[in-house]
Amino acid sequence: MRIGLLGPLEVRNDDGAAVEITGARLRTLLSALALEPGRVVPSGRLVDAVWGTRPPATANALQALVSRLRRVGTRLDSTPSGYRLPEATVDAARFEELVTAARTAPDEKRVVLLREALNLWRGPALGDVSDAQFFQGHIARLNELRLSATE
Q1: Average pLDDT, stretch 84-96?
Q2: Relative to the CA of 142, which of 14, 35, 95, 126 has its CA 20 to 30 Å away?
Q3: What is the reported pLDDT for 145?
């Protein structure tokens, strides 16, 4: 699965076909998980991302959203403390890897790496969830990295 966060949320399956993720809460949940691919994201943090200061009315609301994500083909691991998105290729993570590699690369290679990194951007970072307070720090960090890559 490939997930794009450097613009509006974009999801593609392993064959490259677009996967439609409908609903703001579902898109927010997937975005929060995709920011930490391969790591367990605590349930409390996911609730904060999706509902902010208005927690859900029922205790199983998060589990219901996770079930909906699984129905559209998203592989999620459950743990006692949260959920993990395994085996996803996320453009934001790739962008950070390329910018980090460029810092120590020779001049010619640096230009190639930074160009590849900047070409991953399709619009504002986390464009679908940019209004949510939970994502503001992530957006600021990605924008700072983008700015440093253009200099």
Answers
A1: 91
A2: 14
A3: 96
